Amino acid sequence: MQRKLPCLIIAVCAAVITHAQNPAKDSSINYTKEYVDSLLANDTLMKEFNAFVDSITAPKSYFDISAGFSNRIFSVRNTAFNSQQVSSNKFTLTPTLSYINKTGLGLSFSSFLIFDGSNTGFYQHAITPSFDNVKNDNVAFGFSFTHYIVNNSKTYNTTPFNNEVYGYIIGKKGWLQPGLAAGWAGGKYSEIYKIDTFKLVTIGGITKRINFTIRDTVHTTIKDFSVTASLQHEFDWTNIFDSDDEFTFTPTLMLSAGAQDYAIKQSASVSLKRFPLRLRRLARGANGNTGFQFQSAGLSLSGNYTTGKFYIAPQYYLDYYLPNDLAAGEKRLNGFFNVTLGVTF
In the chain, where are the structural domains located? Predict the structure, then answer.
């Protein structure tokens, strides 16, 4: 942030105005060599000043290194997909390296480390090329594509999606700023269940215990589409602790709708009633389409404190599930948080 820029602009403009308004000694203008040279000097000064302003306000390319701590495990950007988690009691650490070009193009790589007892470890990675345009005075918009690389040994915790497309547009005029976001994601995954059991077998009057393991595998294919309408306002405070810091706070109301296509194939040596655990919104059936319907209403509270090149960005999202198809043990109201620490250079 360039906090000294407004003062510099005022000082230069005041100097130029003062010179321009300096009263002449008489009503006639004497076009002497000295007078013409002074005009050229002032013109050169303004050109240099304008070039300086352009150089420090023009978009610049930069790297961003950050680490986020949260209880979301599905999507990098789409809140509607994150609200489909089975539970919100698992915590993840997500280090991310990003490069943002001055044109708005960006590329990031994220790794997801989950804290889950004996299953603690990196469970997935994500590569995200993106484009964000914030230079428009009326709207900000952007889109991204994310490819997920999944650690199959931790399938319970990973996202069910392999690829995800996401786009958004947010108005910048007015006290309340409307927004619209849409996302599509698709993927295939398997969940394997093992049950150790035994059977007593009597042969020739001798009863023996025979131990064996039942393997039950559930293969799931899923396609998910979501649309989220939002309404937000950004509060901004500057010069809080020093002349180079800023804090923004953005509450956002959100309403999400969407549809899912899914197919479930089960293979087991005996009949076991198993269904996918990773998604809380799938009906308990083999194939289906939920149809396009309202899915959730939510409130997002986002903050961002920046000082120099460092920033901290906390976020809390409260999601209320709308359809009347909750399974036993599922909650209609769920909260998801994320706290990100980062540095840009």
Answer: 5-56, 59-344
**DSSP-assigned letter for residue 153:** G
Listed residue (262, 328, 319) closest to 294, CA to CA: 319
| Contact by Cβ (8 Å): 110, 76 | yes
pLDDT confidence of residue 328: 72
In whole angstroms, what is the distance from residue 277 CA to residue 158 CA?
A: 11
**CA 107 to CA 129: how far, in whole Å?**
4
Closest CA to 264 of 319, 188, 193: 188
Whether the Cβ atoms of residue 222 and residue 261 lie closer than 8 Å to each other: yes
Per-residue pLDDT of 15-48, as tens digits, reads 444 444 444 445 555 656 566 566 556 665 556 5
Q: DSSP of 92-141, one letter per residue?
A: EEEEEEEEE-TTSEEEEEEEEEEE-GGG-EEEEEEEEEEEEE---SSEEE
Contact yes or no for 263/282 (Cβ under 8 A): no
Q: What is the pLDDT of residue 324?
A: 83
Counting Cβ atoms within 10 Å, is residue 213 exposed (0-12), middle (13-18) or buried (19+)?
Answer: exposed
Nearest to 94 by CA among 117, 79, 74, 78: 74
Beta bridge partners of 141: 133, 169
How would you class 152 by CB atoms within 10 Å of its CB: exposed for 0-12, middle for 13-18, buried for 19 or more? exposed
Better pLDDT: 66 or 30: 66
Domain 59-344, second-level architecture: Beta Barrel (2.40)
Extended beta strands in the chain, E state: 62-70, 91-100, 105-115, 121-133, 139-150, 163-171, 177-203, 206-232, 235-238, 245-268, 287-289, 293-307, 310-321, 333-344
